[in-house]
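BUG-504 | component: ligand-complex export | severity: low

The export step for beta-D-fructofuranose jobs runs without errors, but we want the raw record kept on the ticket for reference. Input record follows.
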Amino acid sequence: MKEWTKEERYRPLNSLDEIRELEEKIKTSPFRQGFHVQPRTGLLNDPNGFIYDDETKTWHLFYQWFPWGATHGLKYWYHMTSKNLVNWEDAGIGIKPDTDMDNKGAYSGSAIKCNGEIYIYYTGNHRDENWVRTAYTCLAKLKSDNSVEKFEKPLFGPEEDYSEHQRDPKIWYDEKLGKYFIIIGARSKDDRGCLLVYESEDATQGWKLKGELNVKGYEAFGKMWECPSIEKIGDSYVFIFCPQFIKLPGRGEVTNHNLYVIGDLDMEKMTFTPTGDFKHLDLGFEVYAAACAANTEKTFDYKVLSAWMGLPDAVYYTDDEDWSGCLTLPRELHIKDGKLLQKPIRNIFDAKKEMLYSEGNAGDNGSTENSGDAGSVASAGKYYEIKAPSVWELATENDDFNMEIFCDADGNGGISLSYDASSSCLKISRAKLKRKINPEYGEEREVIFENAISKLTCFFDNSSIEIFFNDGEEVFTSRIFPDRENGEKYLKLEGIKKFLAYGL
Ligand code: FRU
């Protein structure tokens, strides 16, 4: 693996011409994704400034970007736009770390639309000559030509009573109180993850610290909370955050998590009171820094979430190809019976192309080209070649099932899922993967489902798997770097009663 010097990590990009060659090289990778936002070069991490402009009917999404290769260093915001959350247009660099306040990176943040303008709040990661960090909360305006105009001065600097780790502003407007709020993820001096709240009556000035939001029961839960947000979905509030430096049951050695907690928010009393336990946003191995799009309330009755399909400090197979990371497929967040449901963004189904396979009474719309075996089929269960990108709609009759995803024609390699209906237990393993992905964090997951699994909607891209269970009850996400040339390209299904597979 490449060793990066500090100089290489903090080398500014003066012109996109400087990465053209790298970009051409990366285009030849078999792991470039078909329907996921991915970095043109270098490393992508958090989704930032995600917002729906209801006037132009355009989604704006930025990603944290390090242009030169697969490492963390001087971060930019790279801008993408979309009309449907499926097809994305490249809008170029959004925010450059080119001022004193963000001299060592334009770190994560959020956006809001007010008075017809889109404002962006981000963390200016400033370091002095002794490498001492000061985190500023900075403001910029996204203009109609997609250029970004920074405000000259930060809105506020760090709180001295806390550690240097204060970042990732999430802004919202509270209609009832007639105030804007920003929450910042922070690490206290005694190593507690926490939330700092700022308030103002004007989105662009006059911000004052209001204090710490008391998230009841989470007073000692990890040392730092990254990328926090509180989303109102229906009548419920969902607190989404990334606690760090904490191990959680069933998650091996992983110490960076993306969780959510449903509860009641009272900004006057400065409390968030959970109404249940925390849950992992994803059953899988790679989801972090999730963010919901702002300004969707007037148009949609659900929230839209995107997350980094990666983890801090993890390494991926494409690191040697000088790129890493992608975003998850956007998900719709709904609340039903007090529970959070995550569904694939509905427009992805419009992108369905020809039917690849079908079996059982899954449908009758046309050909079942290639239906059945992949050729040299071994034991029980059928094998299908995974054409990526594709979507597979699977149904079971509340029975046991097994899936080997991206295995070879003998069932070796790949990711396996096995479900035991009598205990409603789903076991997931990536222990057999030929190209291992951070095995030191643990390769197994075991989850007891509340309802029997009866439906799976699977999205396979060239280097990722996303499976939505029971119309959004749970989601499983993983990167995967199949060795297709040596046969790691099949899906083996056992116990699945019917399915349809379409190209995307
Ligand atoms: C989360 C994070 C944020 C920070 C950004 C820097 O992945 O560490 O807290 O703003 O990435 O790229």
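Assignee comment: Attached the raw record above. The pocket of beta-D-fructofuranose is lined by residues 45-46, 64, 75, 107-108, 123, 167-168, 226-227, 289, 312 (CB under 6 Å).
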